[in-house]
Amino acid sequence: MLHPVICIDGPAASGKSTVARLVAHDLNFVYVDTGAMYRAFTFLTLEAGHDPTSRARIKQLLEKVDFHADIRDGEIALCEGKRDLTPHIRLPEINAAVSHVSTLPELREYLVNLQRKLRLIAPLVMEGRDIGTVVCSDSPFKYFIDACPTVRAERRRKQGQEDNLAARDKIDSSRSAAPLVRAADATLLDSGKHDARALADRIITEVRSRLQPGPSLP
User: Fold this and answer.
1) Measured between alpha carbons, how far is 149 from 152 in angstroms, rounded to an integer?
2) Which of 6, 13, 78, 4 shows the shortest CA–CA distance to 44?
3) What structural domains does the chain harbor?
4) What's the pLDDT tens digit per position in 169-217?
5) CA-CA distance, 56 to 98, in Å (whole number)?
6) What is the pTM assigned to this prediction?
7) DSSP E strands: which ranges in the chain?
């Protein structure tokens, strides 16, 4: 049985993570940050001393690493074997390299399959860059959250993170494998004009109106 998935896409620092967490919490869905998966693998790449632009090195690492996702307390935990990688994925060097690592088609195929398998476990709020277009394109619940570059840059500064958003946007939107693009049937939401709570409430209202109440839909 495939559980429902709420797809929330958008560029870096668009506010999609905050909105997705609120929606998942209020609906009792599992929150899945697919970008964290790419960040975790980027950490493994850099930890191994590999060039993040080397397709051959990353393919070798993918073939031998025991990388998987567990669900804990309503969210995913990203692990290599028994080691939790989550504490390492927000470092500045990860921000700088993740868009390069994520362009590898073999890695994207591996992680997309992993993401799709989570639908067998529980209802999901899944956020990333290709959820509505590739990962769960059959979902009737698709949202694309964006904000102007100035707003997004200010969010990054407040988070204490160094990130070249313009460069990341260019790489993410121009890559050949699953580029960042709004799905044709996705609702566009502006997080620069509306706060996260308002956007989350809109999504929750729409989902509740279209799904039958059940154990996982309060």
Assistant:
1) 5
2) 78
3) 5-210 (3.40.50.300)
4) 888 888 777 888 999 999 999 999 999 999 999 999 999 999 876 645 6
5) 16
6) 0.91
7) 5-9, 30-33, 67-72, 75-80, 83-84, 124-128, 141-146, 187-190
**Angle 159-126-61 (CA atoms, 0-180°, nearest 5)?**
80
Rounded-to-integer distance, Cα 34 and Cα 13, Å: 14
Phi-psi region of 13 (alpha: psi -120 to 50; beta: other; left: phi over 0): left
Q: What whole-number distance in Å separates Cα of residue 130 and Cα of residue 112?
A: 9
Tokens of 119: 């639908």
Which ranges of 84-145 would DSSP assign to H, the alpha helix? Answer: 92-101, 105-117
- Name residue, tokens 């989350």: 200
Q: Which two tokens stand for residue 178?
A: 């699953």
Distance of CA 38 to the CA centre of its chain: 8
Does position 19 have pLDDT exceeding 60, yes or no?
Answer: yes
Distance CA 163, CA 173 (A): 16
**CA–CA dist 101, 153 (Å, integer):** 22
Region label for 140, one of left (φ > 0), alpha (ψ between -120 and 50) or beta (otherwise): alpha
> Residue 65 class from Cβ within 10 Å (0-12 exposed, 13-18 middle, 19+ buried)?
middle
3-state SS, residue 186: coil
Asked if 16 contacts 168 with a C-beta cutoff of 8 angstroms, the reply is: no
The answer for 69, left when phi > 0, alpha when psi is -120 to 50, beta otherwise, is beta
